Each structure stands twice: as C-alpha cells, then as structure tokens.
C-alpha cells in the first residue's frame, strides 16, 4: 500500500535581464501557487522593467512516510519552505523546472550537482497544514543510540618484520 501523498503546485519564476559580459539574465523562483493554474509551461505572465515573470509549469510535491523526519525539521525551522530546483535547458526560455520539494535532504543531493539553481520559498499555508497533518500521522521519533567504538587490537597495530620473525629488542626499543 502506497502511503505517500502527492499534490501538484504551480511555480512562478522571474527572469531579469543583465548588462554583463558573463550572463544575459538572472533567474529566480519567486512564488508557489498552491493550486496548479491551467497554463502551459513557461507562459509569460508579466513583463516590466527588464524583468519577465513566467509560470514555469506544474511541479509535483510528494510526501513519503520514510521522510517524515525531514519534513518535521522543515516545519520546526521557523520558516517552513518549499525548495524549487531549476536547471539550464537548451530550448526557450533557457531554463527548465526540475522539481519542487519540501524535503531538505533531497535538496542537498541536488546542491552537489553544482549547476542547479535552488531557491527556498515560503511554503503556502495550505501546504503547511497538509504537511503538518502528514507528519502527525507518519513521524516516529527514533531513539538516540550512541555508537561504541571497538577496542583496538594492540597486536594488530604493532610493527612486524616482513619475514614474519618477532621484533628484536634493542637499547632504544624494538627494531
């Protein structure tokens, strides 16, 4: 039985033109629309002052019981966030929506790639309530377990001669 929950949201992204020899524009996710608008991906919503606001498209936000602890940390952080990941694309407009997630652990995996643009946005109130209910149903605290180190085998750490003979005592210690 699949106990995961999924919800589709809309993602709004801003492209701002730059006067720079290194980049022609800067990209930034700016908002999440809790209800998916019926618009095609990368529909222009507004253009003003060198900035273009796009509806980047739909993103599925999935909640899995095995990740409830990560969702709880997100909620307990003081500012519940949804993370939007954008990646450069070959077609117009030059960027593509990769995902939106509420799992900070998943974001860490994408930050290792180096080329992805990741932005934390405020989690809309309807999604906060949904995530709180999900965590209440699925979060199971894990008891803290302190690891114990194995005792070192001092003979295994000793220096041995290549021929297998025992080390000889000298006036300054073993040889």
Structural summary, described in words:
- 20% of the residues lie in helices and 38% in strands.
- By secondary structure, the chain is an alpha+beta fold.
- It has one domain (5-138).
- A 4-stranded antiparallel beta sheet has the order 2-1-4-3, with no helix packed on it. A 3-stranded antiparallel beta sheet has the order 6-5-7, with helices on one face. The protein has a two-stranded antiparallel ribbon with strand order 8-9.
- α1 (68-76) packs across α3.
- The protein is elongated.
- This is DUF3305 domain-containing protein.
- InterPro entries: DUF3305 (IPR021736).
- Residues 150-163 have a biased composition (Basic and acidic residues).
User: Count of helical segments?
Assistant: 4
Kindly state the number of beta strands: 9
Q: What is the mean pLDDT?
A: 86
Helical content class: 10-25%
Computed structural class? alpha+beta
Estimate what percentage of residues fall within beta strands. 35-45%
State the domain count.
Answer: 1
Q: CA-to-CA gap between the ends?
A: 66 Å
Characteristic terms for this protein:
single chain, 175 residues, alpha+beta, three-stranded antiparallel beta sheet, 20% helix, elongated
SSE blueprint:
Blueprint: E1 5-17, E2 25-33, E3 43-48, E4 51-63, H1 68-76, E5 81-88, E6 95-101, H2 104-111, E7 117-122, H3 125-138, H4 154-157, E8 169-170, E9 173-174
Antiparallel strand pairs: 1-2, 1-4, 3-4, 5-6, 5-7, 8-9
């Amino acid at each position: 039985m699949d106990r995961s929950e999924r919800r589709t949201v809309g993602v709004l992204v801003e492209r701002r033109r730059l006067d720079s020899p290194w980049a022609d524009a800067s990209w930034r996710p700016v908002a999440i629309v809790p209800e998916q608008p019926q618009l095609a991906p990368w529909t222009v919503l507004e253009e003003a002052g060198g900035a273009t606001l796009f509806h980047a498209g739909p993103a599925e936000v999935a909640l899995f019981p095995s990740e409830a602890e990560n969702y709880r940390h997100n909620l307990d952080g003081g500012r519940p966030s949804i993370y939007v990941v954008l990646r450069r694309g070959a077609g117009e407009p030059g960027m593509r929506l990769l995902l939106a997630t509420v799992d900070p652990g998943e974001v860490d995996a994408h930050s290792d790639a180096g080329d992805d643009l990741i932005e934390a946005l405020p989690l809309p109130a309807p999604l906060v309530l949904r995530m709180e209910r999900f965590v209440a149903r699925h979060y199971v605290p894990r008891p803290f377990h302190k690891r114990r180190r194995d005792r070192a085998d001092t003979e295994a750490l000793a220096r041995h001669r290549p021929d297998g003979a025992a080390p000889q005592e000298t006036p300054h210690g073993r040889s």
